[in-house]
Amino acid sequence: MTTASRSAPQRGATPAAPEAATPVPIATPRSAARLAKRVAAGEPALGRSRRVARMLRMLAATHPDAHCELDFTTPLELAVATILSAQSTDKLVNSVTPALFKRYPTALDYAQADRAELEEMIHSTGFFRNKANSLIGMGTAVVEKHDGVLPHTLEELVALPGIGRKTANVILGNAFGIPGITVDTHFGRLVRRWGWTTEEDPVKVEHAIGELVPKRDWTMVSHYVIFHGRRVCHARKPACGACSLGTDCPAFGTGPTDQVQAAKLVKGPSRPHLLAMVGIPDDEAPPAAGGEDADAP
């Protein structure tokens, strides 16, 4: 079974669209109102399917660098990092895991870990006692039930301590190349904001989006949506006026539609590219404003 590592980000079957020669069109309040009315009235399945497909192509062009932002080299390392990422940020987890992975390279090492030492090493990620319980329990179960090798099926993964369906899909998609949709906070709120689904339960969201997106693209759609949620489509104030998806978004106007104001909200290292997508030269754009952390969980 092949694995993927953070140093070589996995790509899905859908290729990233080429860099736009001209900026993408920006929605208008009138066009957004018409779309919102249509979605609220019950968008026809075919229309929604076509709109989702357009948004996926645009997401691929907007975030060609999308990947799992947790650092790992083995499936076990990704499982550990994903457990630690609960109520934490990828950046913080990545600062902790190098020493952790060196100290505990195998499932047996976690099973036999000194609890006090393990808790001290992961303390900064928060909820360290519960996370230590999960890591020790997971290591014990992997040793006792799977001969020390992390399993690669959804059913076996969710049976391990500390691993729920979301974590299992992260592991399957990014460590084993098995398509899975990761419904985290960003993913759930964006697909509802975009009118892809009205479901609130994460499992129902996963199934609903799975019906709209080809299975081969499930892992990458998770990365695209999460990247967009961290960098552009923030929870409290999305950067609507600097968003490449505006013409297909029924929630356009939730945040500022003025490009100058919206540009202040765009976050992350790919900010120049994100602004260029909508025709805002980075050297003319105002600096990114403080506030929502692009890497917030």
UniProtKB/TrEMBL annotation:
The lineage of its organism: Bacteria, Bacillati, Actinomycetota, Actinomycetes, Pseudonocardiales. It comes from Pseudonocardia zijingensis. CDD domains: ENDO3c (cd00056). One of its GO terms (molecular function) is endonuclease activity. SMART domains: ENDO3c, FES. Pfam families: HHH, HhH-GPD. Belongs to the Nth/MutY family. [4Fe-4S] cluster binds at residues 233, 240, 243, 249. This is Endonuclease III. Gene3D superfamilies: Helix-hairpin-Helix base-excision DNA repair enzymes (C-terminal), Hypothetical protein, domain 2. Its EC number is 4.2.99.18.
